[in-house]
Amino acid sequence: MDPTSSAVQRSRVTRSSKAGEVDYNTADYLDAFSSIDRSIRDLIDGHQPVRSACREPRTAKVGHASALLSVKRSASRTSFPSPLSPRKPPATPPAPSRPVGDDDEGGDEAAAVAFLCSGLPHYEGPTPIYYSNLNTALDAYYRATRNHLRLDDFGTAFASEDDGEEEHVPEAAWDIPRPPRPSTATAAFSLLSPQTLAGSPRDAGLSTYEGWIDFEELQAAVNAALLTSDADSSTTYSIGRRTETDYMVFYAIESNASRPIDTTDDSADGGWAVQIPKPSVPQDVFESEVISLAYVGENTKLPVAQVLAYDFSSINPVGVPYAIVSRMPGESLAMHWHSLRSRQKRKVLDQIADFIVQLSELQFPLIGSLVAGDGELVIGSLLDARQSEPGYAQSTRLNSYGPFSSTSAYYRAMITASLDALKVLESADDSSSSEPSLDQIELETYSLLADRFVVSKYDNGPFVLMPENFDLHHFVFDRRTCRLTGVVDWTYSSVRPFVTLIQPPSFTFDDTPRWEPHLLNARMAYRRNLVRYRQWFMSGLQKRAWAALGKEKSKELAQLVCTGYWRYKFESEICENVQYSNPWTFRAIWEHLHPNEEYAVWFATARSKSPTL
């Protein structure tokens, strides 16, 4: 007898149904869940052709699965969990758990397979990636392809036959089209990572906001800031074109002495810009960003914008808070990363590793955000982008954002903030069930598991200043030399745990894979390339840290990266808006920590308990 079925028999919670509809209960859903789990593993391991997954099946358990798929197919694809964990292949490929008959039709095959396989981001079939140790992550692949493993000078495993090159990934493997290459007219400089240029649909919403700005006063502020340091008194300045990011609006400052920027010159100056926060950005967030930016510029060699002048108050002649900052020359790394060659990517990752080593030396005693207080910098409460989002903004819990004196307290506070937000959101949802929601189960489980992700040596500090993340849009670079010319977009930068900083950049992790069988090989090649990027980063980090911090410290940092995959996943999940949490990542984390337990059985038991686990 299936253990999942017997486990849930003790707690069948029947759901009401309309006349003429099949009545499903909790046990039915868990039976379907378990059947889908086994079927997909067998299909992928056995590389069997997929027929219609939506016909009335031949057994009771698969019957539940197929009927439920028919009901749920038009709804969200996160209706219930799917398998995640890597599993070593059997000696011989198994047959599919459901017989495939000649009379099966494939009309709904694509939709059914896409639904079933969308929940497999950590299942690698016969050549799994071992996430617990970055050095040996690709061992199964190398053995399967008969490549010979060897170690570099820093202990990183790589194959001698592929010579450190990426695998080719066809365009069809991508879920979302890559960003278009920028035109030469807009590629000359970057206004702190603009993601939308003038003329976009988002401009309409900014028109009203621009009505608050007194551009004559802004022009006067620009002249007062720039003309005092300009030796040529004949130079005049004007407010130029507008760009925007998720949180900020920028206006280029043009002068009658300006010349087109020479993009072949690494030392080319990008000029100046006015930075103004959007209406949704709180004043203290803008203030903290400018203060953090100035602090990093003064205490590291990172290429960040210089802050020339600022006014954080909206009660000023201009009408809005603003800062006058330097523009960073170069092009957005996000526009070109996928077209770079392996050697160029390795060079970029090596520079990012150097930036992280430098930031690791900006140490503080508390976790929070930098703010000005009584003429000096202090660590205030953590400014989190979620605080202005639905659910979080209505939470009444006090002091839930610190500052914190330990990593463990920070983890628990981030989880508590999401639990509070979830209560607000579910209280406004009339259709909510009496059973605990999947989100509630996830968050309460994360709370119980949080201490297992704390690195005891760094629990009580030191803590370090860093941007919200290190995604592709946080960097601008010289396309000719692949030199990073700017680290941009410091909104919601903060002082956070040391181990949060010592990780590969977020674009070397993947949270949105697709596992339709015809894309399996391409997606696997892409995921192996991501592992290579993390290995290259780790090698670069160890070399940079060795030169700056010494041999022993460099080994320690490399070890944090080597074993930090699950910690990164955990931190990403607890800091995410609860409305966008990833149930597949939750299952992967759970199964990583409970390798000898059955997830479906645990989930059934957890959901049958009272709302508080």
Automatic annotation (TrEMBL):
Top-level taxon: Eukaryota
Organism field: Coemansia pectinata
Domain Aminoglycoside phosphotransferase: start-end pairs: 268-498
Protein's name according to its UniProt entry: Aminoglycoside phosphotransferase domain-containing protein
Biased composition (Pro residues): 83-97
Comp. bias intervals (Polar residues): 1-17
Region Disordered: start-end pairs: 1-21, 71-107
